[in-house]
Amino acid sequence: MNTAPASSAAAGEPRWLTDEEQRVWRAYVDATTLLEDHLDRQLQRDAGMPHVYYGLLVKLAEAPRRRLRMTELAKDAKITRSRLSHAVARLEKNGWVRREDCPSDKRGQFAVLTDEGTEVLRRHAPGHVNAVRQAVFDRLTPEQQKSLGEIMGIIAEGLQPSEAGADLPWLR
User: According to DSSP H, which parts of the chain are helical?
Assistant: First the structure.
């Protein structure tokens, strides 16, 4: 709740959001929550997997030799290593991914997209792209699309500190 203008906050008090900032913030939260739910429901219905699993398959498909170290995949997907391990176990059970030991690091593993996983992506990518297009891009002008990309890039960059010891999901 906005109890004081941002410029008049006393030392030690929060910089409350202005009414306009509050409107923008709530619109952002509503839109991202609804979008993630929309995409998750579409993929569950059409492909039998949650959106996060689809994203993992895409990242592996785009990787050289369709394989990534598990730590790198967690970083790319912006999820905890524990959540990634659970997701990869489910994807393995479906035959879409397999794990391989890393020859240069006894503790490291690779996640590898299987031919069956590649086929699942090939079959379901058109429906997913259509859902993304209808939910986002068809609603925006080219200028709005460009602005959205720039804004999200700025926010993402600010939330990914590069210093050692940063509290990031893929380090947990």
Answer: 19-47, 51-62, 70-77, 81-93, 115-135, 142-158
